[in-house]
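Protocol step 4 of 6: structure prediction from sequence.
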Amino acid sequence: MNKKEISEIKKQFTQEHCAITRICGCYVDGEGERKADMKEAFLSLPEEEMFKYFEILRKNLSGTLGKNLINLEFPLAAENEGSTHDLLLRLRESALTDDILLDTFYDKLLESLDMEGNFLILLIHSVYDIPGKSTDGSEMFDASDEVYSYLLCTVCPVKLAKPGLCYNAEAGVIQNRVRDWLVEMPVTGFLFPAFQDRSTDIHSLLLYSKDANLFQNRLIEEFLRCTLPLAADSQKETFNALVEETLGDACDFEAVRAIHEQLAERLEENKENPEPLTLSKSEVRSLLSENGADEEGLSHFETRYEEAAGSDAPILASNVVNSRKFEIRTPDVVVQVKPEQAALVETRILDGRPFLVIPMEGQVEVNGICIHTDVTAEEAR
């Protein structure tokens, strides 16, 4: 799924466009025991409750694609009879009206969740009558030829409200507030099936993780039986290691700056594209080859890449380069420059030692104080 497709489904979680048929859930205590279940026709809920659920559901489709939102594919072996994939299909077909299927789903999911404290599992079924699109991209609501039927599962921590004082209007007094158990925004969840190319893709799903660097590993591997993706910080670490090892002695300031500039330029060119910019194994190899890697360094590249990222796993460009800053860090000093001005920073050898050189032009401030940077003719010599 790309950004536009995610946004299209996210827009369904409003009162105007809502087509949620049913909402179910179970409340789990800190010991992992199910304490209460709920099953409701969504449109029968009080309006205020509906709005609170809309907020939670939209959050489950929020964040950065490739970081908080990850497209996952089911391996062929994970789609056999009796698998989670099979269970999800049957849950969708039942529109969440089969209690036995729901119990099975909750039990299997609880076995693979790593949650501390109390939490709530929510599961909705919804349908979306996909409008057709004309040649100019405008929607034609009377030209729909497919209904997208889907499930969205979300897992929300439930925490005790903070202690405090409140005003009791009836008694006219300030008193200790009753501490309620509050449902917080989700930490993980998934949309199934994926809404791919504005159509149903039962072989994929969209995973949500509040923390882009901390996935529910057992949920992905044991429950969904999908391949665990590299987290955002792991992708950056992997890319940095590949650059250092492949370039070897050629991994100098100029080479790394050139790599940063090329990736930042590609990100800028791709910013209007709903698909995030990814780097394939061959693209990373070409990037390194263009910036100083020799044949000896490249001879081991494929092995290093596959060991670190997987044979066909792409790397998200936005995870490995910060297009908003260019940073140089030493044990004692950190220098940050706007990427488009990175060429202002140079390296020089002075008295046999390497230095970073930055021109002091225009207004220069030190601790907020403007300083004079005029150089006399004698000093210039």
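Step 5 (inspection) to follow. The first helix runs from residue 3 to 10.
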